[in-house]
Structure formats: C-alpha cells, structure tokens
Write a structure and sequence with these properties.
Largest sheet: 9 strands, mixed
Distance between the termini: 74 Å
Bound molecules: adenosine-5'-diphosphate, magnesium ion
Number of strands: 16
Shape: elongated
Number of helices: 15
Structural class: alpha+beta
Amino acid sequence: MTIVDVRTPDPKKFIKGATGDWEIVIGMEVHAQVTSEAKLFSGASTEFGKDPNNNVSLVDAAMPGMLPVINEECVRQAVRTGLGLKAEINLKSVFDRKNYFYPDLPQGYQISQFKQPIVGEGQVLLDMPEEQVEIGVERLHLEQDAGKSLHDQHPSMSFVDLNRSGVALMEIVSKPDLRSSEEAKAYLTKLRTILRYLGTCDGNMDQGSMRADVNVSVRRPGGEFGTRCEIKNVNSIRFVGQSIEYEARRQVAILEDGGEIDQETRLFDAVKGETRSMRSKEEAHDYRYFPDPDLLPLEFTRGFVDELAGHLPELPDDKKSRFVADYGLTAYDADILVVEKASADFFEDVAKGRDAKLSANWVINELFGRLNKEGKDLSESPVSAAQLGGIVDLIKAGTISGKIAKDLFEIVWTEGGDPAQIVEDRGMKQVTDLGAIEAIVDEILAANPDKVEQAKEKPNLVGWFVGQVMKASKGKANPQAVNDLLKQKIGLE
Ligand code: ADP
Ligand code: MG
C-alpha cells in the first residue's frame, strides 16, 4: 500500500522534543460486530451475555465436515456500512483463510477477506473545533470473530467459550490520516455514530462489540512516515486517547536518544496508563492467506447495492446540515444533538411547531445538563419531549419567565405532571398585569431615593432595581415590563 499524505502539518498538534518538533501519525483498525441475529456462517445466535458455549453450532465448533454458509443479512449490513462511509462497494469480493493457531480458534484459521474486500475506499468527516477534517477509509472487510479463552476460572486449567466464535465482524481500516489523539477520539466517536444510525453495529465498546487497534508512529513534521506500533484491542474512546499520548511520547524519547522503533504489537495497560510490548509484528505472509475453497466469491449486482443505497436512513452529516439550515441552529448545537440519533429525534419532537433555538437551548442546556449531572441516559429521562415542549410553550407565550421555567423544570423532573397545569395550580404565572407590577416598582423606588438619583447618571443601575422588583415579586413579574416601567419612572426615556 502506498500512502499519500493528505494532511498539512499543524504546529498546534506537534510534540515538542529536545531536538525539535515531532508529528504524530495514527491509523485505526476498528472491529465492529455486525448487528445480526445469527453468525456470519452459521445459524447460531449472537445474543450477548449467554452462559459459555450456549451459542455454538457445529460450524462454530469446527466439527469435521461442517461447511460455512454465508448469512446474507451480514453481507447487506456490510454493504450498508460501506455506503454510509461513502465508500466504493466491490461487486465481487473473496473470502480468505487467515491461518494461525490459538485455542479459541477451533478451525485453525479465521475466515476473513484479504486481497478483495467487500468495501473499498471511503471517508469519515470530522468536525474538529477549528477545522473540518476528512479521514480516509482504506477498506472494510468481513471476517469471523474468534472465541474467548478463560484463564481465571481454575488454578491449573483454561477454558474456551465459543459463543463469539463465528460472529460477524466488519474490520474498518482507516488511512494513516489522523494527527492527534483528539482526532483519533473524534474519528472513533464519529464512526460509532454512523454505525449506530445505520443500525449495523451497536457500538457498545464495553461489551466488546466495537474494538480498536491503534497504529501510532511519529516523524519530523511533513517528513517520511516513521515505523509504527500497533496497540491492540483498546476498549474505550478515552483509552484510545491515553494510549496514543503515551505511545507517541515513548517513541519520541527513543528516537531522540538515537534509538530505533521496533515495529511491534503492544497492549495498553489501563491501570498504569502505558503501552507494553506483546510480540513483534507479524506480517501478512506469516498467515498464509489463501481463498477459502468452501466459499464462493461474493458477487452482487449494481441493483442490489442501489436498492440498499435507496433505503439508508438520514446520516449524521446530513442531519446536522438540515438542523443548521432548517432550524437555524449553530453548528455547535447541531453537533451535540446529532451525536446520538435518539437525541436528534428528541429535539425534533420538542421543536415541532415551536421556536427551534429556544427548544435546542432547553434540550441541550437544561435537560442534557441535568441528565449528565445525574449520570442518566436520555432513555431514562424523567422529562419527556412533550413535557419539555410544554415548558417551552409557556416561556414563549410569556406565561412564565426563564427563571420560573427552571423551577418548573425541576418540579416536572422530580414529580412529573403537565407543565401548564402545574403553573396554574401553583400560581407560577408571570405577572404581566401592569397595575400589580407598578405597585411593586413604586414601593422599591420610594424605598431607595438616593439610588434613584444615581441611576439618572448611571443607567446601568436600572439592572439593580429590576433585580429588587423580581425578588419582591418572587420571580413572577415580567422582567421586560419591569425594565420598561423603571426606565420610565426614573426618567431615563
Ligand atoms: P496490517 O494489516 O499489517 O496491520 P495495514 O497496512 O493494513 O497493516 O495498516 C494497518 C493500519 O496502520 C492502517 O490503519 C494504516 O492507516 C495504519 N498505518 C500504516 N502506516 C502507518 C504509519 N506509518 N503510522 C501510523 N499508522 C500507520
Ligand atoms: Mg492490523
């Protein structure tokens, strides 16, 4: 593979070494478990969390004479993922055997795709705070997962759980286009968002349904690519960031010391926050890849691909553009909303027929803020879209002030109920009745004659009076009406 460097070196991302600047280069290989009821070449279930060896067919256990049969749903999911990554779909692809020995691999080889993968080059767009970056996808191929060795069940024996054996994985390989740990984390987050929108992988890294191998090298800015190390199976986005920071600095220290980087496979130790050598890097020829004689090449028509393309859901980039164009949201707010399809949908439910910016504000700042604080997911929110919409309606109609709205939100959060009814029952309505407000205004002005004199010179003081009136009205006076009245009475207009 010849690598074309598509990035311009950015000094903000450099590591400052004793001998000058260094640029980090990162490429990722993400293993994403295909969302499918059954495995890639057998009918066994893929359900998570079953007792060991409950989801195992004779094919998955590699009993002699058993033949793999391709699961069409997994193929469809891989093609849909390729389309979501704006990638080339290869109408013909080939399954190969990747040979190696390990107790959790009863076949003695993994069925994967090597020279002719199902999906070719694509892109993932990253919205970084100061720039948009397009990260190249090299390829996506289908392969089987292995089983799992269990070493800590017994003092002198190891066990093998084949539940995962044969489960379909998509390996999504990026080009070495990433230049910082921030970009690598953003890439993984964006990829996960796209997969979840497509429904082709649930993206749950803590259950192992998405795992990342992180390739890291360093070089002089814009220079020749350096030798990389591959950090295997990093299982959270935060750890991806930490492992890159550690690994890049380790390599810089070696190079500045006059040493060389050994191309090797490393492990990330999350407890110590460091990477450790696991083994020297194996080369493709070590695996003796060859086309699997038990499987025909995968071939489909353009029509099959077009049909899937015609039924893709709206993807995050398009949704974001639409939120900015149709609702007038800032790119920043739109970004926050589209990360999860559920939050984008929630926002649209609130915003339907309402002031979109006000709605976005309440969804992001109040609701998401509160959910975050309580460590709750949107699906566990005690406030529904209809209830939040009700609060937005009351603010918009001037029935309650922004301040009272926060109290109201608190009540709906803890007690539930219909916002309009709560406002009615508890007398939370904003007082727009000028007579009532005027009485309070007069009272406050009369009590502070010297401040009134000062305010004539320093109009900013009106703000202090507004505060006093609001306090006296227990937050129920309409602040705009109070402000207007005060200015008029002090003689500022
Ligand atoms: P392999 O399959 O042997 O791991 P590939 O050539 O397919 O190797 O590359 C694997 C990953 O390593 C890709 O994500 C690629 O972008 C990345 N990569 C390749 N060269 C470098 C490099 N010099 N520095 C960092 N990452 C790299
Ligand atoms: Mg690799």
